[in-house]
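Dear colleague,

Following up on yesterday's call, I've attached the two folding results inline so they're easy to grep. Please treat them as preliminary; we haven't cross-checked anything against experimental data yet. The first protein's sequence and C-alpha cells come first.
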Amino acid sequence: MPYKAQEGKGYADVASHFRTMIKNGDLAPGDALPSVAEIRDQFGVAAKTVSRALGLLKSEGLVASRGALGTIVEKSPLVISGSDRLARMEKNGLRYAPGETSSGHRVMLRSVQDPDICQALDLEPGTDEVTIRIRVFRQDDRPTSVGVSVYPPHTLNAVPELGDDVRMVKQFDKLYSERTGRDVVKGQRTAYARQASRDELEALEIDAPPHVSVSVLVTAVTFHDDDQALAYWEDVYAPGARVPISQ
C-alpha cells in the first residue's frame, strides 16, 4: 500500500504505519515488512529513521529480525477491543485478525442492574429489558477477552437481528444508520481494572480457587445517535493481555 509521509515525519510515524497494519490484519504473522531501502523510498526518510522505527516495533513484540528473511511480523501480542474491530472491518472487511476466532456466543434478554450500564444507556435499574450479546475472543485457541454488548429496546426495534442467537453478518451501527437515517457516534473509550467475576474467569478458562481474586482490565464505550444512547460495549481482557490504547 503506497504511503508517503508528510514533511517532517519521523520514526514514530513510520512505526505507527506498520503497527496499524498489523493491528488491522493487513500484515499477518510471518509476513515480511519491506526492506529498509523500500521503507526509505516509501516514506522519504533516512536509514537511521527506519532503523529506529523497526527497533520500536521490535521492542513492542510486533516484529523480529529473521536474518536473510528480513523483518518478520510476529504473532501479535495485542488484543484489540470490539470498537477497534469495527474500525478494522470498516477499513478492510476483516472480522478477525490472523489466528483469531471466537466462541461462546450467547444472546440474552435481561433487565439490567449494573449502575455503569444503566447510566451509560440512561435506564432505570431493573426496569427495561435489554439485549445482551456475549462472545469470547481467542487467539490460537487461547481465550484473550470476553466481549459484552448491551442494547436498549429502541436499538433492538431498529435492528431486530440483535436479538437472534446468530452471528451478525453486518455491524449494528451500519444497519441502524441505514434504517433510521441517523449517524451512529462512538463515545470515549475508557479503561479500568476490577476483580473478575466467576463467569468471566470461566469464560477466560482461568482456574482460580473461589477465595482468590483475579484482576482484569476492562474497556468500555457507549454508542449514540443525536438523541439517545444506542449501545454499551465492554471488553474484559485476560490477565497479561496487551491492549493498544488509542491516541
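Below is the second protein, in the same order (sequence, then structure):
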Amino acid sequence: MSRRPTALAAAAALALALACSSPASRLEEANGRRHAGDAKGALAGYKGVLAELGDAPLPADEAAVRWKALKFAGDVSYLELGDYTGAISYYRRIVALYPGGKEAREARVQIGDIYRERFRDPLAAIAQYADVAASDAPEAPRYQLEVARAYLELGNWSQARTEARILREKWPDHALADEAQLLAAQAWSLEKRDDSALSAFQALIDRRPRPELVARALEGQALIHAQAGRFDRALELYAQALPIHPNPDAIRTNIEAVTGRRARARPATLPGDRAAAFR
C-alpha cells in the first residue's frame, strides 16, 4: 500500500516537469531574458519554441504560443537587435500562418514601418499598408491615410490625391477624412498648382475640422500667397493661424520673414515724393 502514494507522487512530479518544459513555459523564460536585457538570449529562446512547434496546423492554444513567439522574435530583432531583415522574416511568417486575421494585419504594419522608416522604401511600405486599408478592420482608415502619405513622400502627387479621395469617400464621417483633405491640398501645393491648392485648403476650412487642421490649412494658404508676393494676404492668414497652430513659434518665424520680405519689396521712394527723391 505504501508504494501507491510513491507512484502517484512520481507521476505528479513527471507531469509537473513536462508542464514546466512546455512551449508556453519556455516562451515565458525567453520573455524573462528579454526583460532582463538579454535580447540575444531571448531570441534564442523564441527560436527554440518555434523550432519545436513548426509551421504545421496546431491546436488553438499552441497556435497562440507560436504567434507570440514569432511576434516577440520579430519585435526583439527589430527594436533591440537592429536586425531589420530578420524581423521582416518573422513578421512574414505570421502573415503566412495567420492569413486574414488581426495577427497578420499587425505584422503587415510592422513590415511596412520597417520598409518606410529603416529602409527608406515607401513603395514597399505601401504594399503592406494597402492590405490593411482594404480590410474591414477598425484601423483601415488610418492605413489608407498612410498609403496616401507614402505616395506624397514619393512625389506622386496625383496618386496621393487619389488615395486621399478614397479615404474621404469610403469613410466620409471618420476624423481622418479631414487629414485626407489636408493631404490633398498639400499635394496640389507641392505640385505648384496654386489655385487648386488654395481651393482644397479652403474646402478643408469649410468642413470645420478641429482647430489644428484649420491652422495648418491657413498656413498652407499663407505660404502660397507669400511665394506669389502677396505679402499682406499672407500675413493676414498667418495671423489667423497663430492662436490655434500647434507650433506657434514656427508661425511667428514665418510672420517675421514675410514682414521682412514685404519691407524689402517696397520701393525706396513713393511716386510723387520729390523731397525724398532729392535727398
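For the second protein, one point worth flagging: The longest helix spans residues 60-79.

Best wishes,
A.L.
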